[in-house]
Amino acid sequence: MYIHYDNIVKDTDSVVRQKSEKVNLPLSEEDKTLLHDLFVYVKDSQDAEIAEREDLRPAVGIAAIQIGIPKRMLAVVVPGEEEDEVFEYALANPRIVSESVQKAYLKNGEGCLSVEEEHEGIVPRSARVTVKGYDLLQDKEVTIKAKNYLAIVLQHEIDHFSGTLFYDRINEDDPWRAIQDAVVIE
Questions:
Q1: Do residues 56 and 44 lie in contact, with contact meaning Cβ atoms separated by under 8 Å?
Q2: Which are the catalytic amino acids?
């Protein structure tokens, strides 16, 4: 299935709030194809020429539920802190096995392919997480020790498995209230 922006389930559709189920490992051919297609969407969406030609909204991550499939699968392509460093994962059944007490957030808030309306505010996340799951790109179980932006992106996508959207985490009374000792990511 070739994914483009019209395939993305928006937050106005209750489907995006569905709980996602674990997938069987080893992955079926159908699940491998789906996970690969999620990865291709994210990767292609970051190439301005392809994104414009194929009607792709830029993304750093996507979860299967965002195309209406309630399976615990996601893909991320996240720039690292070093030049030419990129973190790429196509994960099945990823789970957070540990997280830091220290918080982190994106200075300008988060966005989501499924959310067209603007929701301003700080989205508190853990500054560091350890995620375990099967990575299709490496064809093996992996342990990812993520920090800062990568940690935020992984938490955002894993939240989709429980039907949680980023704006559910924004403080309604004071959306821009800074979090003491948090890592603020520009």
A1: yes
A2: 157
